[in-house]
Write a structure and sequence with these properties.
single chain, 414 residues, alpha+beta, two-stranded antiparallel sheet, 17 helices
Length: 414
């Protein structure tokens, strides 16, 4: 007799159908998750990432391939540098953690490096949680978790994340380690790259906090968990949740050498922003329920059918998507074709209020539509008058001036 299908199982089957028969799921990594959090209003990216769709393959099938990503040379160089940092049981890495984050602790003469191999992401996640528990209870020792597997609930669907390393300090606290191949020159690195690394690490911190809460969760009053019963412990003896440090260790090559150096980076701001944005995401099952029956995003489908499937999910495009999403070129073309003001940037969209298309903006500037009491409309009409006066034109040319102004703005964003 088959087991009854739970809500979670039904969602996984639904997402597999959306991905396509026999199409393997693409793991949602921390970098993609940080980019998703930066644009929480985009339902298209939420459902595609939640279903594990390979957006790069999808963009190519749609005729708008992505042109960004890490080169093979950079990938190889990054792997070689990470191997150097973790050599000899992570001795150099632990030295940097001690130096930058925990000078009060005993120097890491040696450390435990538990084996984290298990079957599948769920198995690796469980093995990581067990290793964290054991390391936290073994007070007075340093522990290095090399490429642990963490899980984070994103809009009702689990995302499996793999940080470079997590260090458990002798006091039982946890630190995320990010290893990057971009250089740190005279003690500082490129601000944009450090910011991206901090946002990525903030996602790992959030996932570790979920594990910490589970490890320190209080059972129901008057009840004993099975594990506590086996150990002869009562519910009142539950240990407090481990502390996840909000200062992560960023390890980079020093100057132009291959020698590692490090800096402590406070990610509390990035963690707060990411947590707030992820909370705004529409739950994936809610988006899936609105899709037409038979919707599928398999790159093997004919282009017309695939385009219809993608267009059935609303997108929220902004120029920032060009550096964060593989579907950005496709969405940009659709946004421009619809005359959406979001193609000019989020700041412009925010200033224009209820005017959502370029045609609406031009019509309001010409005085043909719009509420005169609307601040955005009033500002547009004043700008059109000032431009006409500056050019020495007659008021009847306002429409042409506004149209030229709008054309210049659209051309600038191209």
């Amino acid at each position: 007799m088959p087991l009854p299908r739970t809500r979670g199982t039904a969602l996984r089957h639904r997402l597999a159908d959306l991905r396509g028969p026999e199409v393997p799921a693409k793991a949602l990594d921390a970098r993609a998750l940080a980019a998703l959090a930066a644009n929480p209003g985009c339902k298209r990216r939420a459902i595609l990432d939640g279903a594990g769709v390979n957006k790069a393959a999808l963009a190519s099938a749609l005729g708008s391939p992505a042109v960004f990503g890490q080169s093979q040379f950079a990938f190889t160089r990054g792997n070689a540098f990470e191997a150097k940092v973790k050599a000899d049981g992570g001795a150099e890495l632990l030295r940097l953690v001690h130096e930058k984050l925990d000078r009060a602790a005993e120097p890491p003469a040696h450390a435990r490096v538990p084996e984290l191999v298990a079957s599948g992401p769920e198995g690796r996640t469980a093995r990581t949680a067990l290793a964290l528990r054991e390391a936290t209870e073994a007070r007075g020792e340093w522990t290095l978790l090399d490429h642990p597997m963490l899980a984070l609930d994103v809009a009702g669907s689990p995302a499996f994340l793999e940080p470079d390393a997590v260090v458990v300090h002798p006091d039982g606290s946890w630190t995320v380690v990010e290893i990057k191949s971009f250089p740190m020159l005279d003690g500082s690195a490129d601000a944009a790259k450090v910011g991206a690394a901090a946002r990525q690490a903030a996602v790992y911190v959030m996932a570790l906090e979920q594990i910490a809460r589970r490890l320190g969760a209080e059972p129901e009053t008057g009840a004993e968990t099975e594990a506590e019963a086996l150990r002869g412990q009562s519910a009142s003896d539950s240990a407090p949740a481990p502390r996840v440090r909000h200062r992560i260790l960023l390890v980079c090559p020093k100057d132009f050498s291959n020698l590692p150096t490090a800096s402590a980076v406070d990610v509390r701001k990035q963690r707060a922003v990411t947590s707030r944005q992820l909370a705004r995401l529409t739950r994936i099952e809610d988006i899936a329920d609105t899709l037409p029956a038979g919707t599928c995003f398999s790159p093997e489908l004919p282009e017309a059918d695939l385009t219809a499937a993608v267009e059935s999910v609303p997108a929220t495009y902004a120029p920032e998507c060009l550096s964060a999403c593989e579907l950005a070129f496709h969405c940009r073309a659709r946004s421009r074709a619809a005359g959406a003001v979001t193609s000019l940037g989020r700041s412009v969209r925010a200033e224009l209020g209820g005017l959502t298309t370029v045609e609406d903006v031009l019509s309001a500037a010409r005085g043909e539509s719009g509420d005169p009491d609307d601040p955005a409309v009033a500002a547009l009409r004043r700008a059109a008058r000032l431009r006409a006066e500056a050019l020495g034109r007659d008021a009847r040319d306002l429409g042409q001036d506004a149209g030229a102004l709008g054309a210049e703005a659209v051309a600038a964003c191209h």
